[in-house]
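A quick aside before the break. I want you to see a complete sequence-to-structure record at least once, exactly as it would be stored in a machine-readable document. Don't worry about memorizing anything.
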Amino acid sequence: MVLGISSGLMILNFVILFILLVWIFSWAFQAYRRKRYATVIDQETFRSGMRKAQVIDLRQESEFKKGHILGARNLPYPYLRQQYGELRKDLPVYLYDDTMTISTQAVSFLGKHGYQQLFILKDGYRNWEGKTKKSKY
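That is the input. The structure line, written in tokens, reads:
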């Protein structure tokens, strides 16, 4: 009986350790991708440069209508993968979502397709304190 409990705890510890290692690897890989393809910028830098950049909101249309950064274009990530050719390579691309997760995927994709001036809003839209716009409908 004691042996059964001991091996059960050992399996549980192994599962917890495995999940923790996967989470750490995933976090490190995302950080590496962000650093390789983009620059993460704070709100002030984002605000000061957005007039000369293409500002892309990667969230779904329903979230975009609830509120978005004034002047942003809604291009959810699945559509970005199809319509990336509409973005100019000679202008900076400012990207944001709620938490930087989708932005990291987007900069990796765009970086592999020749875009070099890629910027991600640090902490995403959830913490944005600048001007916003909401849809009436």
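Two observations worth writing down. Residues 10 and 46 are 49 Å apart (CA to CA). The chain has a mean pLDDT of 91. We'll return to this after the break.
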